[in-house]
Write a structure and sequence with these properties.
The chain is of the alpha/beta class and 392 residues long. An eight-stranded mixed sheet has the order 1-2-4-3-5-16-6-15. The protein has a four-stranded antiparallel sheet with strand order 10-12-8-13, covered by helices on one side. Helix 3 packs across helix 10 and helix 6 packs antiparallel against helix 7. The radius of gyration is 24 Å and the shape is elongated. The N terminus is likely disordered.
Length: 392
């Protein structure tokens, strides 16, 4: 089932060509110069008011119809990842070591398709702000656009984002009120002990031994110190030391990644981490420093915006194809900054269940599913016309 005003077949062909072009020419965060240039050129050709350079390489298109002051923001991300593509598609990345392994090429193309359709055939009264964001992958682009006055210059009543999900059937949608994606915090623990000879361990303090105790104890944060009904993840991903053959290390550095679905759980994780490190180091008579930097906050969907998004998806795809209370995801999303600034909703959309379309996001052989272009762009059209229609 598709919306009665869904993009036509010629527009589907255009979106497919745009998507393949973006895929073949991927660019990393804050370097999306070619991508941003093409987006701006297309938006201008659709008759939109175009603004470039927000958050370095961000692009905003504004479409006003009628005289209503109601407004809605729609956001797509443009950046790629530093991954060498191993897939065999004809439009494989031409930029060595860079690929669209997360589907931002599809997200950008769907929003462009919606902009073209709404400009030519949209039935609404109000303003649509199309937000093409740079540098989502490193969590820097949304904040950069906000710092450049995104919502001061282009005020919106609600802001909406969307991401494809491999393993979900094409044409299906899912979201939920409250937390939809997790915060991501990067931590580093530097242990300063007193190394020595491997044959004389009693004359020093082995930093690896201390670090190993910390690694194990950090797992008790989630298993024993947080409410079991609340999700969290603590992962140590790097362990370095200055030890050598027959030399016990005097320094060790642990680095890792923590995820949480609320600010409270994120704060509790940091608190328990610092207590664990201090306690173990005190027991061994050594010192350590801990840094804990939250890169992505949790994405919190506003209740009203989520109801509107779910209603639009149901109108488009039918009730059976929409999960309005799906489980939260433990990956992180830069849209969180926009949703913290304005009431918002982040929607998940199926990318397919077979082949390259079912590969995990960030896999070197993942590919966005072209069959999702029409459902995704139609969702944007439906959402705008429902929210900004005469009865919206």
């Amino acid at each position: 089932m598709v919306h009665k005003d869904a993009p036509t077949s010629p527009l589907e062909d255009l979106m497919t060509r745009w998507r393949h072009d973006f895929h073949q020419h991927p660019e990393l965060g804050f370097n999306e110069h070619r991508t941003a240039g093409k987006v701006a050129e297309l938006l201008a050709s659709f008759g939109l008011e175009v603004h470039v350079g927000l958050g370095q390489t961000g692009v905003v298109g504004v479409l006003q119809k009628g005289n209503a002051t109601r407004s809605i923001g729609l956001r797509a991300d443009m950046d790629a990842l530093p991954i060498s593509e191993t897939g065999k598609v004809a439009y494989k990345s031409a930029n060595d070591g860079v690929m669209h392994a997360c589907g931002h090429d599809g997200h950008t193309s769907m929003l462009l398709g919606a902009a073209k359709h709404l400009s030519e055939n949209g039935n609404f009264n109000g303003r649509v702000v199309f937000i093409f964001q740079p540098n989502e992958e490193y969590g820097l682009g949304a904040a950069a656009m906000l710092d450049d006055g995104l919502f001061d210059r282009f005020g919106v009543d609600q802001v909406h984002g969307m991401h494809n999900i491999p393993g979900m059937e094409t044409g299906t949608f899912a979201s939920r009120a409250n937390a939809i994606t997790a915060s991501e915090s990067l931590f580093e623990i530097e242990i300063t002990a007193h190394g020595g000879h491997a044959a004389l361990p009693h004359m020093g303090v082995d930093a690896i031994m201390v670090g190993s105790e910390i690694v194990g104890a950090l797992q008790t944060i989630v298993s024993r110190k947080l409410d079991p009904s609340l999700n969290g993840v603590v992962s140590v991903t790097e362990f370095e030391s200055d030890g050598r053959r027959n030399v016990l290390p005097g320094k060790a550095i642990l680095r890792g990644d923590s995820r949480a679905l609320s600010p409270e759980i994120n704060q509790a994780t940091e608190l328990h981490m610092r207590r664990i490190v201090d306690g173990i180091c005190a027991a061994h008579g050594v010192v350590a420093t801990v840094s804990y930097d939250t890169i992505f906050p949790a994405t919190i969907n506003a209740a009203g915006a989520t109801r509107a998004a779910v209603q639009a998806a149901q109108s488009l795809a039918g009730d059976d194809a929409v999960d309005g209370d799906c489980p939260a995801k433990l990956f992180s999303e830069d849209f969180a900054h926009l949703a913290a600034a304005r009431p918002g909703c982040f929607m998940l959309m199926g990318n397919g269940t077979e082949g390259d379309h079912a590969r995990a996001l960030h896999s070197s052989d993942y590919d966005f599913n072209d069959a999702a272009l029409v459902p995704g762009s139609s969702y944007w059209v439906t959402l705008v016309e429902q929210q900004l229609g005469e009865g919206g």
